[in-house]
Amino acid sequence: MMIYSCFGSLNVSIKYSFVDGYLQKRKTCFSQGIEHSSNKGFPVTVYATSLETPVVINRLGEENVHSIGSFFNEINEKFGSDILWSEERLLTLIGRIALAISRNYPNYVVKMTAFEEIVGHCMSSDHSSLVRKTTRYSSVRIRLKHRNKDCNEEVHYFTGESNNVWFWKNLDVGEILKSLEEKLRCSRSQIVSFGLKEKVLLGAGSGGILFHEACGHMLESDKILNGLSVFRKMMKEQIAPSFFNLIDDPLIENSFGYSEFDDEGIKCSSKQIITNGFISEFFCINEDLKYCTDFKSPGNSRRENYRSVNSARMSNTFVLPTDNSFEQLVDNVESGVYCKELQSGIVSPYGDYSFYCPVLYEIKNGIIGAPLRPSFVRGNIVSSLKNIIMIGKELCFASGFCSGRSGKIPVSVGQPAVLIGNLEII
Questions:
Q1: Of 115, 141, 294, 314, which has fewest CB within 10 angstroms of its CB?
Q2: How crowded is residue 239: how many other Cβ atoms within 10 Å of its Cβ?
Q3: pLDDT for 341-382, tens place per residue?
Q4: Are 303 and 406 in contact, with CB atoms under 8 Å apart?
Q5: Mean pLDDT by 10 residues, the chain (426 residues)
Q6: What would the pLDDT profile of 38-49 be if each residue is shown by its tens digit?
Q7: Which of 193, 210, 206, 207 lies closest to 363 in space, CA to CA?
Q8: Distance between CA atoms of 4 and 52, rounded to whole angstroms?
Q9: How much is the pTM?
């Protein structure tokens, strides 16, 4: 394994906020940092925090006024200057999307936030050559809130990708409107299913939030070492059915959790976290290897920027598909609910969780029926893993930001549809 020494980091981000289709705010952030190195004489350039007077700093502490254009030129060569750094074209494209969405919802305040970020790392493997690795993240968040203050209708939409210069051009407004309309339709439903314990069919894509939050975080090295994981004494036990496999792969092209190197300078690779129902790997950083023999390999250090602490985090975490069709999963439910989409929630160190479900349908006798009022799905991850009944075959992904002790980082979650028994809807 080749380990790179990570000397410097650079974050350049631009955030545009639109309200009802019109630009309200533009915010630019620019930050840099120098990491510690055993070779204190090796000069490594990173760019300082002022856009007006960019500065190059080396390991000896010397400072010189320097043009930031060379760094931007490298980014433009990789990602396409006409899309990324022609702000007029970018704003025109994003503005059209914001206006198109707002015109469909005159009774709602439509807030759209467009986010572009470049993350760069300066690294060296042999203390003689400099390697620059850059990743571009593009994302959009949309919020609809009813203009009538007495009406509590509010729905959200989010998507993001990495290293895709055509992200904004390829954004499907029709799909966004379809997703928002489905959430509004459920929010207006008068049918509730509170207090029921039954089979829950988690939808493909965002349903993976459950396994990311309630399972993946519990398998991070710091949680294990600090006794904050319900799995800390279950490392040799079968925790899920033999057909359940959980993967984390930071190298999926254009994924929102893409990363070629982690923040310790270690080249990233795919990890099979759960294999045939058994824990087989952990999310680990290099400095934690000495504390537990069950930690096999590092490569999971991720943090928001150089100010954040070093911590093991996920990237693109997903459940492997099986051969079951979606129709087969639905046919297996006599009475239950179809939780098509999951959003944020909470998880305790004991594995108890609760997640918000904005799109929910009833299932009766193997048929998906009427929309239900948005609810929370509640359970315990230890029992939920054992109660997995079937897994589908159509793998989908959803993207978002994950907050933790090392800051807010872009991630993806994924799964086919997953059928779980004995979950509570509240």
A1: 294
A2: 18
A3: 999 889 999 999 999 999 999 999 999 999 999 999 999 999
A4: yes
A5: 52 82 77 43 33 33 37 49 55 86 93 85 52 78 94 94 86 94 94 78 97 95 91 89 97 93 84 95 87 80 81 96 97 94 92 95 94 94 97 97 91 98 91
A6: 333 333 333 333
A7: 193
A8: 31
A9: 0.86
Dihedral sign computed on CA atoms, order 340, 344, 349, 352? negative
CB 93 within 8 A of CB 169: yes
How many residues belong to the chain?
426
Q: What are phi and psi of 266, to 5 degrees?
A: -95, 135
Q: Measure the N-to-C terminal CA separation of the chain; round to a whole number of Å.
A: 48
Note whether 302 and 283 are within 8 A (CB).
no
Q: What are the strands, taking DSSP E only, across 179-330?
A: 196-202, 246-248, 271-275, 278-279, 316-319
User: Phi and psi at residue 8, in whole multiples of 5°?
Assistant: -140, 155
Residue 148 one-letter amino acid: N
Please give the single-letter amino acid code of residue 302.
R
The answer to whether 122 and 5 have CB atoms below 8 angstroms apart is no
Q: Which residue has tokens 């990890």?
A: 271
For helices 173-187 and 87-103, the axis angle rounded to 10 degrees is 40
Residue 386 CA to its chain's centroid (Å): 25
Helix segments in 80-126, DSSP class H: 81-84, 87-103
48, 22 Cβ separation under 8 angstroms: no
What's the CA gap between 239 and 221, in Å, rounded? 18
What element of type H or E holds 182? helix 173-187
